[in-house]
Amino acid sequence: MQYGYFNDDLREYVITTPRTPLPWINYLGNRDFFSLISNTAGGYSFYKDAKLRRLTRYRYNACPPDQNGRYYYIKDGSCVWNPGWQPTQTELDRYTCRHGLGYTVISGEKNGVSAELTCFVPLNDPCEVNRLVLENRSAEIKDLDIFSLVEFCLWNAVDDATNFQRNYNTGEVEVDGSAIYHITEYRERRNHYAVFAVNTAIEGFDTSRDAFCGPYRGFSSPETVCNGCSKNSIAHGWAPVGSHHIRLHLQPGEKRSLLFVLAYIENPLEEKWEAPGVIAKIRAKELLARYREDQQAEFAFAELHNYWSGLLNRFSVCTGDEKLDRMVNVWNQYQCMVTFNLSRSASYFESGTGRGMGFRDSCQDLLGFVHLVPSRARQRILDIAATQFEDGSAYHQYQPLTKKGNSDIGSGFNDDPLWLIACVSAYLRETGDFSILQENVPFQNDEKKVRPLLEHLRRSFDFTVSRKGPHGLPLIGRADWNDCLNLNCFSTEPGESFQTCSNMESRKAESVFIAGMFVKYGGEYADLCDWLGDTAEAARARAEIEKVRTATETSGWDGEWFLRAYDAFGKPVGSRTCEEGQIYIEPQGMCVMAGIGVENGLADKALNSVMERLETPYGVMLLQPAYTCYHAELGEITSYPPGYKENASIFCHNNPWISCAEAVLGHGERAFHIYRLTCPAYVEAFSEIHRTEPYVYSQTVAGSDAKTFGEAKNSWLTGSAAWNFVNISQYILGIRPGLEGLEIDPCIPRWMKGFTVHRVYRGANYYITVDNTAGVEKGVAAMKVNGRPVAGNRVLLENARSEYNVEVIMG
Ligand code: BGC
Ligand code: NOJ
Fold this sequence. Notes:
Elements: E1 4-7, E2 12-15, E3 25-28, E4 33-38, E5 45-47, E6 54-56, E7 71-76, E8 79-81, E9 94-100, E10 103-110, E11 113-120, E12 127-136, E13 142-155, H1 157-160, H2 164-170, E14 173-176, E15 179-182, E16 192-198, E17 204-208, H3 209-213, H4 223-227, E18 240-250, E19 255-266, E20 273-275, E21 278-279, H5 282-289, H6 294-312, E22 315-318, H7 322-342, E23 357-358, H8 359-369, H9 374-385, E24 397-398, H10 416-431, E25 440-443, E26 446-452, H11 453-465, E27 510-511, H12 512-531, H13 535-555, E28 565-566, E29 572-573, E30 583-584, H14 585-593, H15 602-613, E31 615-616, E32 619-620, E33 623-624, E34 650-651, H16 655-664, H17 668-678, H18 680-683, H19 687-690, E35 698-701, E36 712-715, H20 720-732, E37 735-738, E38 741-744, E39 754-761, E40 764-771, E41 780-785, E42 788-790, E43 794-796, E44 803-810
Parallel strand pairs: 40-44
Antiparallel strand pairs: 1-2, 2-9, 3-4, 4-5, 6-13, 7-8, 7-13, 9-10, 10-11, 11-12, 12-19, 13-18, 14-15, 15-16, 16-19, 17-18, 20-21, 22-39, 23-24, 25-26, 27-28, 28-29, 30-33, 31-32, 34-35, 35-36, 37-38, 38-43, 39-40, 41-42, 41-44
Helix pairs in contact: 7-8, 7-20, 8-9, 8-10, 8-20, 9-10, 10-11, 10-12, 11-12, 12-13, 12-14, 14-15, 14-16, 16-17, 16-20, 17-20
1-deoxynojirimycin binds at residues 344, 358, 360-361, 481-484, 646.
């Protein structure tokens, strides 16, 4: 069953009922100002940091769900309704929500009045624009009362939700014409405020939530709206809101457009006040003046549209499979942008108050983003690397506002350093900008400890070299990619964080997954050293890699698949000898991607075992059999009921690793089959089971042990976006950036008789045609570049050439 459909021409997902199984959301904003918006106009806004600069308040875990957003109430006689149905939930005569790239349009119609709400964050201003167009489609005159509503957050979202004894006293506002200023704490240490304004004269306003709602009433039937009259309330403490009242008199057929803007304004400290006690409004007025007229808003909207067209023009494919094309050309890349921007901070499953930017998360997000805006990827790499410690380890998270490592969580996740190599390598392959390696980057954000980025990579590599366990495999530390496999934790205290506690420093617990990573990304480091002419360092690196490869093939092999780990007592994890958790997905994917066991058949065996033991119709499960009870020696993974999250759900993040691994072995049918199982556009057909948005990946889908098998959770902010894009673009379609240029190495199902790709790469346009009339799964039989046959499958760079025509014949 579906709750909407894709409109490929407009690059939109059109939702046709407000009663989606869960709120289906979109993200507005690309850089500093962000908003989340659901299909019923719920959500919230923040500036840069969802924890420290929250503009509007959101009620988590609310019942009914999704409370608070940018709400517009329409009072037409005794009928009060919202174009997005919430919060009044008045039944609409017509409803659609169109989520597009950086914008959302919600349209509702009731009793002959239609309302179309277009929400977007312009490219160049820190604000959300809401254009509300009302049309009288009836034969009578309509006298309408329109009320807007946003509820302000007192900036720090954690404090806002906890420190009521203070917060109920601090709230302050200023009202100036049609502009409502939220100025809490501006009197003291803040030099920023929010403003919510409309481009027309208003009948009245409210800024006190309690006045707006009336005693014991909520946003579903606020007193102000039901009475058709604002109270001109001024908030003194308690809960400041912004609400305008506008009266419209519409003739039959008449249309009116209103522009509302919610903006974040920062003033230089010395320019905070325009008079004693009166905030300086110049910057706010300048910004608002840019969205006063419809044409201005239309222009900003067109700019946003063009921006996205330009971005998506950098990689597009035509395969003839419309689901595949729409994922590659639009939605997967779009999600890559969102995950790059927000890491795992703010979604409908991440409160925005917990994690900032994850080290491993951001490094991986970059893999799917780097081709879109390489300059931003460059900056991100430098920011991330600056949080690294001198010994090569890393802060596991950092706050986007301060860019400083987060000491609450600290370090100790032993896979982190290698992800830095992965993302720098991806950046170099994409851009050829080797100058980044010479950039001076601090350790631990300390300007006194500055070394070139290349040195950071060396320390990342050596971090693993110098931390190995009894089997010569890398020590796992607190955890590796699987945050829940906590082999040194031994927690028995309810509520204790699995991520930060470690009750045993075994120096024994080893990770076969990190071993795979080390062989793969260590190998990329060695290639880079060769490329830079440092053959001695390359040889040293390769010798280290060989040791770990051998250790993996001997001590990391269980007979039919790769082991997952050794625990703190040296007992295998992910082995046929275990009672539960006999086989894990991660090492099978990563080790084969690294090329381990490809020559000697281990890789084939491992992937067969995955197919036999882990694959389901909804994707490949993380492990089997699921753990049925808690094991202190394994940690959080066993805290989840069977089939959920890391305990044997389907992780959309590492499904592509299996698909990539199949491609490494030349299995095009299998690679594509695995790709499809979790791919949103294919999953759309059973949205009532899957339940999260059908245009983006979710982190996890309940596995076969779960009662809710097939149900997804944690949509949007997941490394699944980047990895699925890497998989489909580089492994399946096989357009792979290398240090010396593009390599074309498709691995596709036999039925796919060919495809074309347009890709912008290092400043040139590549038009690639792949012909698979032969119906093979892998293999380039012949290739021509600009009409000339070339040997192999590399497109060598030619100076000053801006266009490459590449014809590939598979066979
Ligand atoms: C989740 C993991 C996540 C970790 C982050 C755990 O509860 O299951 O998926 O990586 O929290 O701290
Ligand atoms: C989500 C976390 O953000 C990511 O860092 C981790 O690798 C996965 N969960 C698996 O535990």
